Amino acid sequence: MLFGQDRDSIRAVFVDAWRKHRARLPMQPLERLVAGVVERHPEYHAALESDEAPPDREYPPERGESNPFLHMGMHIALEEQLAAGRPAGLTEIYHALATRSGDAHQAEHRMIECLGEVLWRAQREGTMPDESAYLDCLRALVRR
Fold first, then answer.
1. Which residues contact 144 (CB under 8 A, 6 or more apart)?
2. Which of 60, 82, 88, 107 makes an SS bond possible with 98, Cβ 3.0 to 4.6 Å?
């Protein structure tokens, strides 16, 4: 597991990494990765900086709310995939999307939609994520 096995410990990693970043404290490589993702999402800064933000807060999509921790976690998962060059072909797709849009962060957002879909299906079906379906979805983004 990347951060821990429960929601509160995962969320604490985001809050602590952002606190350290803002205070210019030394950070571990994972904390730097997390802080970099948080930095690119100013819309979530207040939630991470507030002493009143409960770690167990729900973000129900039916109320139009986006879960900042899930969203940023997907960015981290994608960055880890890109760093590892896995699955094969992912890096080329990323570069093609980033070049076309002129915005690497926007390219990540498009790719995260595919990652989220594949992870959702795997969870629903109780299977491993389908790498072929993931790559097919990503390739479709390039063709659009």
1. none
2. 107
Separation of alpha carbons 70 and 76, rounded Å: 10
Angstrom distance (rounded) from CA 94 to CA 92: 5
SS3 content of the chain, % helix, strand, coil (to 5): 70, 0, 30
Q: Are 107 and 97 in contact (CB under 8 A)?
A: yes
Q: What residues contact residue 129 under an 8 Å CB cut-off, 6+ apart?
A: 118, 119, 121, 122
Residue from 12, 45, 44, 18 nearest 31 by CA? 18
Kindly report, residue by residue over 94-111, the tens digit of the pLDDT.
999 999 999 999 999 999
